[in-house]
Amino acid sequence: MAVLVAAVAIVISLYHVPGKHQAYIDMIRVHMWFVTYWVGLGVLSSVGLGTGLHTFLLYLGPHIASVTMAAYECNSLNFPKPPYPDEIICPEVVDPKFIPSLWNIMGKVRVEAFLWGAGTALGELPPYFMAKAARLSGYDPDDAEDLQEFEELKKKREQGADLNFLDRAKLNMERLVER
After folding, report:
1. By the 8 A CB rule, do 75 and 94 touch?
2. Which of 30-39, 78-87, 113-122 is predicted with the least confidence, judged by mean pLDDT?
3. Contact predicate 30/83, CB 8 Å
């Protein structure tokens, strides 16, 4: 714990003390904001805030589309690396190494897509651990109702009653889960 406190104190002092290192501090700050932005959008996409819109449709998809359109408009992918400025500025000289293709465009947006995906995976962890804890606790208020419903379905099947597709699917799923 003392090492963590010392590291935080050093970082804070480096951030506030003027000097030649400020250029590196600014670069790190910009990149950390970039990472936080895309990972945060990924987390928001999996947490579900009730908006009904997925952050891929709102942020990552349009970003990929803008990079793709700019690549074909400029006939090059030789514009700045992430984090991009507000505008994508076409290079004056077209380098043949940066000709737009599907593979090159995927390479250009891979960092943003990976960070967004990592955030989505991180956002899935809290519900997973909550569900796991609930399962391990053994308490399920719906158990009695579900058990009664399946007992009735089993009786119907044993009596030779004609079950509809949904009831047969429920029984098959129950049998599959019990294995």
Report:
1. yes
2. 78-87
3. yes
Using pLDDT thresholds of 50, 70 and 90, give the confidence band for residue 139: low
Radius of gyration, CA atoms only, the chain: 27
41-to-13, 79, 80 alpha-carbon distances in Å: 30, 24, 22
Distance from the Cα of residue 98 to its chain's centroid: 28
Instruction: Give the pair of three-digit tokens for residue 31.
Output: 């990149």
Residue bearing the bigger pLDDT, 126 or 174: 126
Q: Work out the widest C-alpha separation in the chain, in whole angstroms.
A: 85
d(CA 78, CA 89) in angstroms, rounded, equals 9
More confident residue, 53 or 78: 78
pLDDT value, residue 149: 78
- Residue 77 CA to residue 104 CA, distance in Å, equals 8
Are 67 and 90 within 8 A, CB to CB?
no
Quote the pLDDT of residue 175: 77
Query: Rounded CA gap, 97 and 111, in Å?
Result: 19
Burial label for 1, CB within 10 Å (0-12, 13-18, 19+), is exposed
